[in-house]
Design brief:
heterodimer, A: alpha+beta, DNA polymerase, domain 1, 2 domains, 32% helix, B: Aldehyde Oxidoreductase, domain 4, Aldehyde Oxidoreductase, domain 4, 3 domains, 7-stranded mixed β-sheet, 20 helices, 29 strands, 24% strand
């Protein structure tokens, strides 16, 4: 049996204390222990971006972070993007532009694109493509995703 | 049958009903489930591509604290060889189905399941895998279709398969050839004799995976009363029920399959892999729920990709471009068990054209690779790539515009295909003309190492059973229940067709996807059928509601039934009497009770799909890297119910086809071990590999559907392979006959042979 450890974090603005296996990745802890299943597992080795979260201001793949490393960290998941019942401009444009089909990659794209627009509110198409190259989508061919990010950037101008 | 008045809702672009849940992380996909007392399970898999299982010993695993149960083949039912009739669909080979879910006497691909283990947490289950000891006698693997067809090849299934190279050879001797199809029309020899130009070429395509981002998953509870519940992400709950019942040896009625949201499938989430393991583990544990999901490596190594293929295509034409004869030979890898899509590949190979004399043969061949599954237009990308490449070469040789030559030979309504089917109302010519009229085709492509290619694609589309139940709620909304798992917007397309038929606002329809006990038999979300057949069921359910609302209004007004008619969201009676839908809905509870409309349909009047793509590339002469500069996809979509999702299907299909053309492949070493079983190395297109994909929707309504719907999902994956290859030729002068045209393969063709 593995050892369990207590970890203290702030997740989506809420102080969150949880018990994790010392081998748990942040992805496993978020999904199986805390119940934030909006964070998706696509590859579990950092190639697809479906599990992207923002940790202390940095975009990370939560499958590549150990839960034990998050002691004291501030983490934002897809569940924490919408505030006060309002969708963010990105969530809204993803809906309006049909930027999702099956939706499994959508949380990762939304989190990654949120991080992009925080750093670069008016990215070019190439900058959007470069930033999102770590997020795989198999349904859309990316066209409508890129446009949704462009439209969200225009909207928050 | 197609309505002629302009539609109010069909053709608009509303937000999908499940949209908010999917942008906020609330939508529950298969592995998001958590049940009280739930255990976690993993599958033990073969490290060998081909081996006899001598012994399995799970005692050490079972001794590990936290491990609760192990399932091996001994826990499954017995099954003899040969086909059995299961009462649903065509006869199946139960032994092969069982063998693929859990290996019997031998393993036939690397990653083949041999056991499963349930434990209190995921890490313990993983630890237990290493403690299950399996003794193998390793056999030489057969890794590609041409080797497997040789008489000297090791036999993967002993004496069980006896396919031959000709019709006369069938059943004569043990072989790796599982099946052979043959279509013939006209006099092929005479057709070639009458041709001015005859070109024959060989082609290969790699094995490709669907690449859905969500791994396979299943959670099962085998209750002590014998009832089994399975929660899973699947394209077809009813097909999961049928397959699981067969494999577990229980009646279908004892299984309820609950559809979770599904994270992509493209045909690959139709077979069962984990469901029977989860169910048997739950049974062994006396009714504890067991959850399983695959790693990405398992998805790539052990679920069904599409066939690697070899094809040989010979086409003859007159100097004026008239196609005279075609001979198409296709050999498809089935993986470890029979069942490649070579039949569909053979049916589609010559689809866009009217060719008077044709012979098509196809071989289904077992190799030591994972058993293939459906993948978007199964079989057609490979067969049509070969044909479209030869057509392009003929057009060039006779100095004809490639689209003019295609138009000259285009299949039209009434054209007979070699497999015997006759084309109905199709938009093939309209698609070809739209390509010629497009800004992309008319533009000049400038710059060095750049080239343009075009190619067509044909897919027949499917119908199959669908059900819809719709209940009028007293506030004037409608709860719509279907069994079609929503893989990319079908809740929206169904709700739109219901709203259109009833003449009510789209937002007043609340669609739900329900389990197998709660709706009539519904085929898989696949075959480009769901908006077509499911939409038809929805239409019929709405018409059922309309009739009942007319009857109710007549009763309320105390007038003759014939004096009442439903029109445009309202019921109209004599003397200007009228109930809006909402008004009548509010009266239903007090005037006889709730109204619901039901329909179970099995439509056969499918409308075939045609697509044509234009691709501009730039090829780096030093590295062989191909960059897509511009891409336009033209398609006859029938009626675009929700144009944004139609465009999305086209863009997604084109991207997968571009992946097949340029970067994706199963790469095996000499021992039959896949060496690129991750998303880093199995190279699907990323945002940086693609430009925007322009779409042109041609709408030739299908007369066999109330709203003119054709399927749209599959055909866009077909043209990219040849469109890219033809563009590469145009840029470099090299005909790419082996895909993917990745730098390694392409550079080999581009560089002069070493001295």
């Amino acid at each position: 049996m593995s050892n369990r450890i207590i970890i203290n974090t702030v997740i989506n603005g809420e102080p969150t204390e949880f018990l994790a296996d010392e081998r748990d990745s942040l992805l496993e802890a978020l999904r199986e222990r805390i119940g934030l299943t909006g964070v998706k597992e696509g590859c579990n080795n950092g190639n697809c971006g479906a599990c992207a979260v923002i940790m202390d201001g940095r975009l990370v793949n939560s499958c590549l972070v150990l839960a034990a490393e998050t002691e004291g960290a501030n983490i934002t998941t897809v569940e924490g993007l919408a505030k006060g019942g309002e969708l963010t401009p990105l969530q809204q444009t993803f809906l309006e532009d049909a930027a999702l089909q099956c939706g499994i990659c959508t949380p990762g794209f939304l989190v990654a694109a949120t991080a992009l627009l925080e750093q670069n509110p008016h990215p070019s198409e190439h900058e959007i493509r470069y930033w999102l190259a770590g997020n795989l989508c198999r349904c859309t061919g990316y066209d409508k995703i890129i446009r949704a990010v462009q439209h969200a950037a225009e909207r928050s101008a | 049958m197609v309505a002629t008045e302009p539609y109010k809702i069909v053709g608009t672009r509303p937000v999908r009903p499940d949209g908010v849940d999917k942008v906020t992380g609330r939508a529950a996909y298969g592995s998001d489930i958590k049940l009280p007392g739930m255990l976690y399970a993993r599958v033990k898999r073969s490290p060998h591509a081909h081996a006899i299982i001598k012994k399995i010993d799970a005692s050490k695993a079972l001794a590990l604290p936290g491990v609760k149960a192990v399932v091996t083949r001994a826990d499954f039912r017995e099954a003899g060889p040969g086909l059995i009739d299961i009462g649903e669909g065509p006869p199946v080979n139960l032994k092969f189905m069982l063998d693929n879910v859990c290996a019997g006497d031998k393993v036939v691909y690397k990653g083949h399941a041999v056991a499963s283990v349930a434990a209190t947490d995921l890490h313990t289950a993983e630890d237990a895998l290493n403690l299950i000891e399996v003794e193998y006698e390793v056999l030489p693997p057969v890794m590609n279709v041409r080797d497997a067809m040789l008489e000297s090849a090791p036999l993967i299934h002993g004496n069980e398969l006896t396919g031959g190279l000709t019709a006369a050879d069938m059943g004569k001797r043990p072989s790796n050839i599982a099946n052979r199809v043959e279509f013939e029309m006209g006099d092929v020899d005479a057709g070639f004799a009458q041709s001015d130009i005859v070109i024959e070429r060989e082609f290969e395509t790699a094995m490709y995976h669907q690449g859905y981002i969500e791994p396979h998953n299943a959670t099962a509870l085998w209750n002590k009363d014998g009832d089994i519940t399975i929660w899973t992400s699947t394209q077809g709950t009813f097909s999961v029920r049928t397959a699981s019942a067969m494999i577990l040896g229980v009646p279908v009625s004892s299984i309820k399959v609950v559809p979770m949201e599904i994270g992509g499938g493209f045909g690959g989430k139709i077979p069962v892999y984990l469901e029977p393991h989860a169910a048997l583990l739950s049974k062994k544990l006396g009714g504890v729920p067991v959850k399983m999901w695959m790693t990405r490596e398992e998805v790539l190594e052990a679920t069904g990709p599409t066939s690697g293929t070899y094809s040989r295509v010979k086409i003859g034409a007159k100097n004026d471009g008239t196609l005279m004869a075609a001979n198409v030979h296709l050999a498809f890898e089935a993986g470890g068990f029979p069942g490649s899509p070579v039949g569909a590949g053979a049916m589609c190979a010559l689809g866009p054209y009217s060719i008077p004399n044709a012979f098509v043969e196809g071989f289904d061949v077992v190799v030591n690779r994972p058993k293939v599954a459906a993948y978007r237009g199964p079989g057609a990308p490979a067969s049509e790539y070969a044909v479209e490449s030869v057509i392009d070469e003929i057009a060039e040789r006779i100095g004809m515009d490639p689209m003019d030559m295609r138009l000259k030979n285009a299949a039209v309504e009434g054209t007979r295909r070699p497999d015997g089917a006759t084309m109905g109302v199709i938009g093939n010519v309209q698609v070809m003309e739209a390509i010629k009229d497009s800004p992309h085709y008319k533009s000049e492509l400038e710059g060095e190492n750049r080239g343009r290619g075009v190619a067509m694609g044909f897919w027949f589309n499917a119908g199959m059973e669908s059900a819809a139940y719709a209940t009028v709620v007293s506030d004037g909304t409608v709860a719509l229940v279907t069994g079609a798992t929503d893989i990319g917007g079908t809740r929206a397309s169904h709700a739109m067709q219901l709203a259109e038929t009833l003449g009510i606002p789209y937002d007043d329809v609340k669609p739900h996807v329900v389990d197998t006990d709660s709706i009539g038999w519904t085929g898989v979300t696949g075959g480009s059928r769901t908006t077509f057949a499911g939409g038809w069921a929805v239409y019929e359910a709405a018409m059922d509601i309309r009739v009942q609302m007319e009857e109710r209004a007549a009763k309320i007004w105390e007038v003759d039934r014939d004096q009442v008619h439903y029109d445009n969201g309202a019921v109209h009676g004599p003397d200007g009497k009228v109930f809006s839908f909402k008004e009548l809905a509010a009266q239903l509870p007090h005037t006889g009770g709730t109204i619901s409309g039901h329909a179970d349909v099995n439509p056969t009047t499918v409308g075939a799909a045609f697509a044509g793509h234009i691709c501009d590339v730039e090829v780096d002469p030093d590295t062989g890297k191909v960059t897509i500069l511009r891409y336009t996809a033209v398609q006859d979509v029938g009626t675009a119910v929700h144009p944004s999702y139609v465009e999305g299907q086209i863009q997604g299909g084109a991207s997968q086809g571009i992946g097949m053309a340029l970067s994706e492949e199963y790469f095996y070493d000499e021992n039959g071990v896949m060496r690129n079983s991750s998303f880093l190395d199995y190279r699907m297109p990323t945002t940086l590999d693609l430009p925007m994909i322009d779409t042109i929707l041609v709408e030739v309504p299908n007369p066999g559907h109330p709203y003119g719907v054709r399927g749209v999902g599959e055909v866009p994956i077909i043209p990219p392979l040849a469109a890219v290859a033809n563009a590469i030729y145009n840029a470099t002068g090299v005909r790419v006959r082996k895909l993917p045209a990745n730098p390694r393969n392409l550079l080999e063709e581009m560089l002069p042979p070493e001295a």
